[in-house]
Every structure is written in structure tokens, then in C-alpha cells.
Hints:
Strand order of the largest sheet: 1-3-2
CATH architecture of the domain at 14-118: Alpha-Beta Complex
Order of helices and strands: HEHHHEEHHHHH
Distance between the termini: 154 Å
Shape: flat
Largest sheet: 3 strands, antiparallel
Strand content: 5-15%
Radius of gyration: 71 Å
Helix content: over 70%
Structural class: mainly alpha
Number of strands: 3
Amino acid sequence: MRHLKAGNRLGVTTAHRRAMMRNMVTSILENGQITCTLARAKEVRKPLEKMIGWGKQGSLHARRQALRFVKSKEAMTQLFEELAVRYKDRKGGYCRIIKLGKNRLGDNSEMAIVQLLGSKADQLSELKSQSGKKKKTKKKESSVLKEVSEKIQTENSFSEKDDESVKPKEAESNKNEERKKEKGTSQIKHETSKEESMTEPVRTKQEAQQMPKENIKTETVPEKNIKTETDPEENIKTKTVPEEQLATDKKKESTTTETDSSETDPIEVQKDSEEMREETENSSDKVIIKKNDSETKKQN
């Protein structure tokens, strides 16, 4: 069974095929394109795109991996300088295969061109860019659509004219209504002004009648002043009876009474002293008697 044997062997040994692929990749990097059989062109795409991927990385490891396959220094400089910048934003599809349409004379094999996109030999990309810039031709509209659009436009124009003719009439009617309202408001204001002018004399009479009463009230106000003049009598009463003076008067009276009592007769004083002595002696005798009784009880 033919498992894990993808790819075309091209009728040669592995060493021959590997050397052939290396030579083809280096020549494509140097010149931008080569012509070969269609089978070899399809096989050379894999190693070529792999080398461009190493060139986009630009690290030291990528340079060493590319040097294992590429043979010349010119191809290396082209790979890591120009192609890396050119295909920086592109993800795959770096080459193009163009069939020549004529076969080789010896073995009648199909021939093709392998070229890098954006190289000097690449003319198809320029043609495609020019064709893309051309303006797209508008499709011809059908006659039925034109007729329908014209009818719609005419109907819209008639409707707009009708609206314009109706609008002035509405504006005039609105103006007339506003004028009527203004007239009504002006009449009402005139009537109210007349009524006010009639009522003003009546008000003036009433005010004139009320004014004397107010004057009388203002004349009676001085009674308050009379009351305020009588108030000082009360203040005088409160001033004549302060509490501190009363206390001092009481003390003076007490002192006078004591002095009067001290001026009493000396005979009465002696009597009082004798009575006090007798009472003290009686009390002392009673205490002595009680002590003696208590001692006799203890002895018994």
C-alpha cells in the first residue's frame, strides 16, 4: 500500500530530486522566474514558499535553516532583504505558475513558467491592477422601469402643486381667525377700561369717607403715651421696697431687742443662775445613786 508517499518523484532518485529542487529555488530567488515542465513547477512551490517563510522570520536560526537549502549568497540577500519586506503582509501564495501552451519537442511534455509575485518579470499583476481601476459600466435600465419612475415623478409633482395651492387658503383663513380674536380681545379691553373709569370716582368717594375715621384712630393713639407716663409710679413703688433693705431692717430690730434684754435687771439674772445650779446638782445626785445601786447588786 502507498501510504505516506505523497508528492511526485519525477522519475529520478531522491538525491537527484533534492539537488534539482535546490537549484531551481536558488535560480528563482536570483532571477524572479524560470521555465520548466509543469510537473516540476508544481513540485518546486513547496520548498520555495518554505524558504520565503524563513526569510520573513529574519532570525539567526531562520538564516541557518535557509542556508541548508539555498546555495548562493545573492539568493540569501534577496530572500532576507527584498522578499521579506515585499511579502510582509501576505500570507502564502508567493509564486505564480503560467502554462505556456506549447510542448517540448523531445518528449512532448507540457511547459510552464514559475515567477514570483511583484518581480520585474511579473507583468500580469500590473495588468490586473490597471483593469481593476477601470470604472464599471452601469447596466442599462429597462424601459418599463423608466416609464414607472416617470409616472411616479409626475404624480408627486401634481400632489406638491395641490399642496401649495391649499396652503395659501389655509394661511388666509388662519389670518382671518387671528384678526377676529384680536378684535374681540380689543373690545373686551375697551369695555373693562370703561368700567374701571366708572368705578374710580366711586372708590375715591369711599376712600374720602374712610379717611376721617383713620385720622380719628391715629388721634386716639396718644392714650398709650398717657399710660406710659403713669407707669413711672409703679417703678417708684418697686424701688421703695427692695428685699435687701428689709433684711437689714430686720437685723437692726433684732439687735435692738438684744440690747434691750441686756439692759434688764441683775436680780432676775441671778435667780436664773441659781435655778440652773440646782438642776445640775440634782442630776448629779441621781447619777451617783444609780452607780451605788449597780455596785451593790454586783456584790450580792
